[in-house]
Amino acid sequence: MNGSLHSSSNVVVIGLKRGPAGLGFNIVGGVDQQYVVNDSGIYVCKIKEDGAAALDGRLQEGDKILAINGVQLEDRTHKDVVELFRTAGEDVELRVLKKLSRHMNGPTGPRPEQESPVSSLGILAALAGAAALVAFIYVRHLRKHF
């Protein structure tokens, strides 16, 4: 089943007023376009700068939208959900499963862009080690032939 066991502390209700550019965010997912493996849920993929969602500040990229104006989004196609958003009216109520943060006591927003699961320094160290190993093997190979 699609996320039927959600911790109530991670589920929030967010009310947004549609602005000139809509609600101000993009979505991904659906039963026909899974964004997360084995999960056909609808996720926020981009918050548009100065849009209704950005100005409100509660909705974040990576949040899972569970319902729009009380209509559950489970087991719906992407196109069906887009249509629900288009016809939702000016005042829209979203039931949202907040993205879990990496640290229990850390910030709940998205990670800074310069931070990644594998650090750049770690990648450079691995590449340097591999280059040293290749050079060592090459030099040993040359010594055997002369």
General form: elongated
Uncertain residue segments: 1-5, 103-116
Q: From N to C, what is the helix and strand string?
A: EEEHEEHEH
Query: Which CATH-level-2 architecture of one domain?
Result: Roll
CATH class type of one domain: Mainly Beta
Q: Share of helix among residues? A: 25-40%
Number of contiguous helices: 3
Main sheet specs? 6 strands, antiparallel
Determine the CATH topology of one domain: Pdz3 Domain
Overall pLDDT level = 81
- Tell me how many strands there are: 6
Work out the strand percent: 15-25%
Pfam family, one: PDZ
InterPro entries: PDZ (IPR001478), PDZ_sf (IPR036034), Synaptic_Scaffolding_LAP-MAGUK (IPR050614)
Subcellular location: Mitochondrion outer membrane
GO cellular component, one term: mitochondrial outer membrane
Care to describe what's here?
The protein has 146 residues and is of the alpha+beta class. It has a domain at 8-97: Pdz3 Domain (Roll). The chain is built from 3 helices and 6 strands, in the order βββαββαβα. Strands 1, 2, 3, 4, 5 and 6 form a 6-stranded antiparallel beta sheet that branches. β4 and β5 form a beta hairpin. The longest helix is centred in the C-terminal third of the chain and has 26 residues, at 120-145. The radius of gyration is 23 Å and the shape is elongated. The N and C termini lie far apart (67 Å). The model is unreliable at 1-5 and 103-116 (pLDDT under 50). InterPro entries: PDZ, PDZ_sf, Synaptic_Scaffolding_LAP-MAGUK. One of its GO terms (biological process) is cell-cell adhesion. Keywords: Membrane, Mitochondrion, Mitochondrion outer membrane, Transmembrane, Transmembrane helix.
